Amino acid sequence: METYCSDSITELAKSLLKVQTQMAPATKDAVNPFIKNKYATLNSVMEACRDALLACGIWLTQLPVPAPVELGSGHIALLTKLTHAESGQCQSSLTGVL
């Protein structure tokens, strides 16, 4: 499988530590209609982290990419990528195979 990360993430990691000290918890702003539990929507999660990420020079992107070849052809996945603006270092997660 293709790697979507930098060989070194030292500068990114330092900035992510700063992000964690500035981030507030996401607000549980919705209710599951089936089991009635509360959960945080994607908008709430983004509101909780966006300012801290930007203040620490971290850029978040999500892109559709080809799924790993072992899943067969015609599938796509979602790549979530954190990039440190100053160093260019990045760390990614591949999920949501369709």
Task: Please describe what this structure looks like.
This protein is flat. The protein is built from two helices and five strands. The chain has helices at 10-22, 42-55, and strands at 30-31, 38-39, 58-66, 76-84, 90-95. The model has no long low-confidence stretch (mean pLDDT 91). The longest helix is centred in the middle third of the chain and has 14 residues, at 42-55. Helices cover 28% and strands 29% of the residues. A hairpin with a 5-residue loop joins strand 4 (76-84) and strand 5 (90-95). The two termini are 16 Å apart. It has a three-stranded antiparallel sheet. The chain has a two-stranded antiparallel ribbon with strand order 1-2. It has 98 residues and is an alpha+beta fold.
Instruction: Please list the strands of the largest sheet in the order they lie side by side.
Output: 3-4-5
Largest sheet: 3 strands, antiparallel
Helix coverage percent: 25-40%
Distance between the termini: 16 Å
